[in-house]
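User: Show me sequence and structure for the first protein, then do the same for the second.

Assistant: Starting with the first protein.
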Amino acid sequence: MSNKIQKKKIAANYKVKEPINNFKLRVKIVQQRPLLADLLENEGDTRDSNFLEEEDRIFSWQEKVFSPFEATFYNDESNCLTEQQKIYYQQIKENDIQGSQLYTYTQHDSYYLENELLTKPYKTELSIRNQNALPALQNRKPFHERYNKIVVDDTPNETRIRTNHYLYMERTTMYVMVDLSQRDKTLTSSDEDMETVLCVIMYDGLHKILSVDPDFTNEYFYTITNSNGVKFNYWIEHASEKQSSLELQQQQNELRREIKNRLMHKEAEISHGIQLTSSNVHKFFIKLDIISAHNFFFNGLSVSYHINLPQYWSIDQKDKLFGRTQMCNLKNNSAYFSYATEMMLESQLTDIFETKDTVPCWPKLLLSVTSFDSWSRYRTEGYASLSLPVLPGLYEFNISTWRPTGSIINTLRRFFTGGTLKLEDITYCSIPQGHEGKMLNKSQLTVTPSGYIKLNMNIVHQASPTKDNDQLEYFQRLSTDKFMTNIESIFEQFKAAREHMLRIKNLNM
């Protein structure tokens, strides 16, 4: 019964303990004999000689074996455009390669088993819902441009990355193919029988796992049929040679040296790519995590943030000063976002250090909470502002919010149809530009308290080593002087108002 039992095609995974370069695979394919072959005397005449009759070959790991079509195609230098194709052209010219019916595609070849992954756009259910969730705001980009995520990296057969809550896997792939086309037919790239997959081998170098699809046959065989109805049996066997302990030790030492050289090269690239800050620039790396919102009334909550930069401050070109979380419904009067973002701010310290007796304006985090329910009613739920911490470290905040209110008509409109009162300028929830150090009158603004926002903030400073101690000293003094300056400013304003009242009282007398 050996080699006469057909096996189902099921993949298998194997733990690899030796270097993957020692792996070898034997593939044998034989054309099936017709059912009436036993009645014929000459067995050799029972197979169709116009198709592949029998071939047996051993493949090493990532060994490139050319097909007859590839040998003809790469033999023409005008067809070779990429660097790898030019290498194939030199190999075929120097070794006079004619091609084999059993051939391979390695990680350097641009072959994909499923082209649908590259031709069809991939959209998650969350991205589709968020794209139509909130009404389009003026001067805002579409959702896919503001939150552009790479789903599949189109690097051929190398590292494929899925980001934004998708699978991440690093693997190397090798395909064992067979050419089942007619020998008297002119080969074209559109011939289906020219590229038939017999086996897919994937190696996960991180976990040392080798996947073989389909599995090794041993005493069984697999069956495949071409477009002309001709059937073939093929076998897949593990043909790796057993290495001695000395050879394995030498291979492991070479592998360690190769990994060490790669790490040293990568470290040199990273150190070369690090940009040192100039002596008059102080960088602030901010990691913002908007965790949740609590005690709001309506569903469909989202939180928008905006960084208000005063004079002498700037932001990196690739970062943005504003953003918005995803929508979230209330559960136990709480909405959980876990929205994380990061940005880098730069401060020009030349003018600041020249006038250390004054306290400069500090960046502020401005927040707004909105709701959008199933009836398409859009409401402003609250505003809040927070001065960014001066010193580096990890901070946790519970920020209370407020929202503007109007007459009873506005209250009814807010409940039934939405469209509530909102600020034309979000910086007005804090101190707008141009009003620093001046009396800002907000007495005509009627507000009511709303819920609160829970967020975490991690701040890292980067400065020039020469002035690092001076800057740290200055920021430590600034964190305490800022509070004292605010108190002194209040007392001065109270004193000026009291003197003004006394002058008016004396005039009336």
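Switching to the second protein now.
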Amino acid sequence: HALKQPMMRAINDVSFKMYKGRGLAVVGESGSGKSTTAKMIAKMYAPTDGCIEYRGRDITTIKKRDELMRYREGLQMVWQDPFGSLNPTHNVFHHIARPLLIHKKVDKRNKAQLKERVFELLEQVGLTPAKETAEKFPHQLSGGQRQRINLARNIAVGAEVVLADEPTSMLDVSIRAGVLNLMEEMKVEKQMSLLYITHDIATARYIAEDLAVMYV
């Protein structure tokens, strides 16, 4: 008889709420389940027990294509690695225009409107001159600039919840503040709910109103 594999608990007894215009920082040592928590919220992993609710609905019941599209529109992620999160074969314009078109924020037949909206988003995240930035490819950008592109994509689709998994850990100390300030502005001005995963207590205190600690 095949031996039954023992179950490993990646996350146990985790409970929290998120609110509009408010940040929750999740801190803890490596292996405590911080990223796994975010990936379950993003429907990359399915929980074996418990419930994750979005607008009062259990997300495991969100299965139809149009419902999944709306969920992914409302919930976006910012990854730790700014260098691996953009396709090196496409320019910045493509990376901003694509979510606008996929989520029907702009009519694909109206190229002038699309271009105007892309430039507007680049300016909102401090990437100017917008026209020159839009023509660049990822390898021509710094890590901080790439994270700003990722944040512009979140704004483009009108994200209500942003899951930021150590978004500044791979950036130079000199440019971390700029990215954190932008995330803080987005949280307040766009009334986004922010889940901020980090090892850095100092940045957690800066950007989040609430703090949760996870232990191995």
